[in-house]
């Protein structure tokens, strides 16, 4: 008897059903934590019944993609650090190890990135030997491990144009939903339960959108780093006119929402992305479009209350934050001092915020909440894990941009470059990016876009060589 005929095989509907089941557990778990326990028996059931582990792995992957964007909103009430995403990572790892069809050969093209990521994780772990606070160090190392695994997930699963298209569609839906939520916040002053706008009350916070994230800066960079992916998808839809209309609406609404966050780096990064994408798509026609639309746009800005409000927000964001700028300069000075005093070996993974807080106060505060983030990922990394750790992490970005500039990909699309640029902006704007999974995930996605293009070019070159060889053979 052929037992292969008896093996359980997923249909597309069944894959979606498993994904919905896992997400439902996350939603129910946010209401009543006991529902999270259901993940264990469900996993065991699928393993015991000899489920096709490859299909289960794919279902877990897509659930992780959705869960990482919603984060703490799929968590236990009062325990926002325990949520569905963190349950699914070990679940994915277990199923991956049980799966005999492990596609390790396709990962070889990502070898340099794996080397840099592993070195970054190792330097973080080694620095624990001289860290003052081991719990803070373990917390830091866990986030670095999460980053490494997110990169692995993308490298492993995004192995074709089909998978990339599915991911782009999911991101587009999440992006559009976030835009609608942001608009609703601006118009009503209502915010999600975990929004910082419910905690830090200022003269403008009531109508500053935060979406499904904690603060306005996070939300601005969230929209900015997703925008190139969404714009590329919309501008390459089969129904071209529909795609262009959706792109235009999405661009206008995104600019409005980002301006409403008062985020300077968000406005700059989005403005650069929007201009580059526009001219990449429309090229010479773009100048004609701008020439025709400029008078109308200019009049709307100077003659309407809406336009005046937008100008006032932009002006305020760039001129009324001198105190914030001076505070950051002081933080950067102290961060470099911390790194220098450790002889650029770092004071131990995750220990910089505690040390920084002590330097600002003038004394050590043993309170668990007594810490100050550096608002500069690179200087904070230098202070935490030293020059070698910083170099290991920095090489990920250096290798990415080196491959990108040498690949010719920019002739096809600016998306990976804009992702890289936005990430760099976020790294010096946000209080911390180590915990911002969406940033690292989209960065890994950008790397996969580039590698997929390089794979296609290599395949095309191989085909050309084969044709040339066959031609020469026939001639001989």
Automatic annotation (TrEMBL):
Q: Does the keyword Cell cycle apply?
A: no
Leader sequence segment: none
Q: Where in the cell is it found?
A: Membrane
Domain O-antigen ligase-related residue range list:
250-391
User: What residue intervals traverse the membrane?
Assistant: 20-49, 56-76, 82-98, 110-131, 137-158, 170-192, 212-235, 242-259, 287-306, 385-405, 417-433
Keywords from the named record: Membrane, Transmembrane, Transmembrane helix
Give the CC-aspect GO terms. membrane
UniProt topology in membrane: Multi-pass membrane protein
Task: List the PANTHER family.
Answer: LIPOPOLYSACCHARIDE BIOSYNTHESIS PROTEIN PA4999-RELATED (PTHR37422:SF13), TEICHURONIC ACID BIOSYNTHESIS PROTEIN TUAE (PTHR37422)
- Name the UniProt record assigns to this protein: Teichuronic acid biosynthesis protein TuaE
* Taxonomic source organism: Listeria rocourtiae
């Amino acid at each position: 008897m052929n037992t292969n005929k008896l093996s359980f095989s997923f249909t597309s509907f069944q894959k979606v059903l498993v994904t919905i089941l896992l997400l439902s557990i996350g939603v129910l778990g946010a209401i009543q934590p006991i529902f999270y326990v259901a993940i264990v028996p469900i996993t065991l059931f699928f393993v015991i019944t000899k489920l096709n582990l490859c299909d289960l792995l794919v279902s877990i992957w897509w659930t992780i993609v959705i869960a990482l964007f919603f984060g703490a909103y799929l968590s236990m009430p009062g325990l926002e650090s325990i949520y569905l995403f963190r349950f699914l990572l070990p679940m994915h790892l277990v199923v991956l190890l049980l799966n005999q069809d492990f596609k390790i050969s396709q990962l070889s093209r990502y070898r340099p990135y794996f080397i840099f990521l592993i070195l970054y994780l190792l330097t973080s772990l080694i620095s624990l030997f001289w860290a003052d606070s081991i719990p803070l160090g373990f917390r830091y190392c866990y986030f670095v491990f999460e980053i490494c695994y997110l990169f692995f997930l993308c490298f492993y699963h995004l192995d074709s144009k089909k998978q990339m298209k599915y991911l782009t569609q999911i991101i587009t839906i999440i992006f559009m939903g976030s835009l609608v939520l942001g608009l609703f916040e601006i118009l009503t002053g209502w915010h999600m339960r975990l929004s910082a706008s419910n905690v830090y009350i200022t003269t403008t916070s009531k109508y500053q959108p935060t979406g499904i994230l904690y603060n306005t800066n996070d939300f601005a960079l969230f929209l900015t780093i997703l925008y190139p992916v969404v714009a590329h998808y919309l501008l390459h839809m089969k129904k071209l006119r529909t795609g262009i209309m959706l792109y235009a609406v999405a661009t206008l609404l995104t600019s409005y929402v980002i301006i409403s966050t008062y985020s300077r780096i968000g406005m700059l990064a989005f403005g650069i992305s929007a201009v580059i994408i526009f001219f990449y798509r429309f090229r010479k026609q773009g100048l004609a479009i701008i020439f025709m639309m400029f008078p109308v746009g200019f009049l709307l800005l100077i003659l309407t209350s809406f336009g005046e409000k937008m100008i006032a927000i932009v002006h305020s964001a760039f001129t009324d934050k001198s105190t914030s700028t001076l505070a950051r300069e002081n933080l950067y000075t102290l961060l470099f001092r911390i790194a220098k005093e450790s002889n650029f070996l770092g004071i131990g993974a995750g220990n910089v915020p505690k040390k920084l807080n002590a330097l600002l106060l003038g004394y050590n505060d043993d309170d668990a909440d007594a810490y100050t983030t550096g608002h500069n990922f690179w200087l904070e990394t230098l202070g935490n894990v030293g020059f070698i750790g910083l170099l290991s992490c920095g090489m990920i970005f250096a290798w990415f941009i080196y491959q990108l500039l040498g690949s010719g990909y920019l002739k096809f699309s600016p998306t990976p470059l804009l992702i890289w640029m936005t990430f760099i902006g976020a790294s010096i704007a946000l209080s911390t990016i180590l915990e911002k999974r969406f940033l690292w995930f989209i960065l890994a996605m950008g790397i996969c876009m580039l590698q997929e293009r390089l794979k296609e070019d290599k395949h095309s070159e191989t085909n050309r060589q084969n044709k040339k060889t066959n031609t020469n053979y026939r001639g001989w």
